[in-house]
């Protein structure tokens, strides 16, 4: 625990979280900076901790151009990062309409950050999601019935090809980032979209979580975050099991891949269903819904001569002792 006279507790908490996250980083990092309290507090902590570890950091502000004056907000965020001693720059992106505004903006932002990391020669990108963001993500996944993978929420560390995405603040409450900005005199921007009830996440933040806290008592957000952590552990264990068994139960098939019926039948439903989803995703790049997965599993557990099942990007059918997944025509 830090013992610095006069050091604000929120500042100390965020610095500790960032220090722990940066401990395993090799090379330089890029910080996704919006100018809001979360990312500004993260940026300030990185500016303090990174030099002590010999890590070069660059703040990248993504200007989505979705609001009037977004260029002014971006300029102020860059200036704040520079005053903290970091290199900083703005990247302007064009947001499409596929999948809704939130998803399209997120995709554009991720692509821009990836490109910025490549330009800076960095292999690590830092994002400022907090414990509150994690709780909201879990609740949204629960409402949509998205399964354990969605309920596992956001991972504090995720490998994506040649990049590492780090979220050092997943154990930090949003109120701490705001307090840290106030304590350090950082000019945090308040995004109007965070109050726009058109967005599901805003409604969850303003309505659902407060009702849960009021009815169930304090600590709901922390409990949801703990649930996500436990489910990530379960998912990692399942993934390891699949990696250990998949090569022994699959074989090439014409225009696709085949999986042993006996091997699928010998596994419990949770592992069997994950193997089915894994095969389809790895071979055809598609994700199956729960209903689609169960229909494929019935070819193993409830075989009555059913015909082929059309799936996203492929077709599943039983051929003797195997389930064949072949590319869609």
From TrEMBL:
User: Where does it mainly reside?
Assistant: cytoplasm
Q: Where in the numbering of this chain does the tRNA(Ile)-lysidine synthase substrate-binding domain appear? A: 260-318
Q: Which domain of life is it from?
A: Bacteria
| Reactions listed under catalytic activity | cytidine(34) in tRNA(Ile2) + L-lysine + ATP = lysidine(34) in tRNA(Ile2) + AMP + diphosphate + H(+)
| UniProtKB keywords | ATP-binding, Coiled coil, Cytoplasm, Ligase, Nucleotide-binding, tRNA processing
User: Which intervals hold domain tRNA(Ile)-lysidine/2-thiocytidine synthase N-terminal?
Assistant: 29-206
Kindly give the Pfam families that the UniProt entry links to this protein. Answer: ATP_bind_3, TilS
Q: Which residues form a coiled coil?
A: 221-248
Q: What InterPro entries does the entry give?
A: Rossmann-like_a/b/a_fold, TilS/TtcA_N, tRNA_Ile_lys_synt, tRNA_Ile_lys_synt_N, tRNA_Ile_lys_synt_subst-bd
Q: Residues that bind ATP, according to the entry?
A: 34-39
Q: What is its EC number?
A: 6.3.4.19
Localization of this protein: Cytoplasm
Single Gene Ontology MF annotation: tRNA(Ile)-lysidine synthase activity
* UniProt remark on domains: The N-terminal region contains the highly conserved SGGXDS motif, predicted to be a P-loop motif involved in ATP binding.
Q: Which PANTHER family match?
A: TRNA(ILE)-LYSIDINE SYNTHASE-RELATED
Q: What does the similarity note say?
A: Belongs to the tRNA(Ile)-lysidine synthase family.
- Give the protein's function: Ligates lysine onto the cytidine present at position 34 of the AUA codon-specific tRNA(Ile) that contains the anticodon CAU, in an ATP-dependent manner. Cytidine is converted to lysidine, thus changing the amino acid specificity of the tRNA from methionine to isoleucine.
Q: What is this protein called?
A: tRNA(Ile)-lysidine synthase
Which organism's genome codes for this protein? Answer: Microbacterium memoriense
């Amino acid at each position: 625990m830090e013992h610095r006279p006069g050091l604000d507790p929120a500042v100390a908490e965020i610095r500790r979280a960032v220090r722990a996250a940066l401990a395993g980083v090799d090379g330089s990092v890029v910080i996704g900076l919006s100018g809001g309290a979360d990312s500004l507090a993260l940026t300030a902590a990185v500016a303090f901790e990174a030099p002590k570890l010999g890590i070069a950091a660059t703040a990248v502000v993504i200007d989505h151009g979705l609001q009037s004056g977004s260029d002014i907000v971006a300029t102020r965020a860059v200036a704040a990062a520079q005053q903290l001693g970091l290199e900083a720059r703005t990247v302007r992106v064009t947001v499409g309409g596929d999948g809704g505004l939130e998803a399209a903006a997120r995709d554009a932002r991720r692509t821009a950050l990836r490109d910025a990391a490549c330009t800076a020669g960095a292999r690590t990108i830092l994002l400022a999601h907090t414990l509150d963001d994690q709780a909201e993500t879990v609740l949204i996944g629960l409402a949509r019935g998205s399964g354990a993978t969605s309920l596992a929420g956001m991972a504090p560390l995720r490998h994506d090809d040649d990049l590492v995405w780090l979220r050092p603040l997943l154990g930090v409450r949003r109120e701490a980032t705001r307090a840290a900005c106030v304590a350090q005199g950082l000019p945090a921007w308040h995004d109007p979209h965070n109050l726009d009830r058109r967005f599901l996440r805003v409604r969850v933040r303003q309505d659902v979580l407060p009702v849960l806290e009021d009815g169930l008592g304090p600590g709901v957000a922390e409990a949801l975050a703990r649930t996500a952590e436990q489910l990530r552990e379960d998912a990692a264990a399942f993934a390891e099991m699949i990696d250990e068994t998949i090569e022994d139960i699959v074989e090439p098939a014409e225009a696709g891949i085949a999986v042993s019926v006996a091997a699928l039948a010998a596994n419990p439903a949770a592992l069997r269903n994950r193997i089915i989803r894994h095969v389809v995703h790895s071979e055809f790049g598609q994700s199956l819904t729960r209903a689609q997965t169960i229909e494929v599993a019935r070819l193993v557990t409830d075989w009555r001569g059913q015909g082929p099942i059309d799936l996203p990007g492929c077709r599943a059918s039983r051929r003797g002792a195997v389930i064949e997944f072949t590319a869609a025509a």
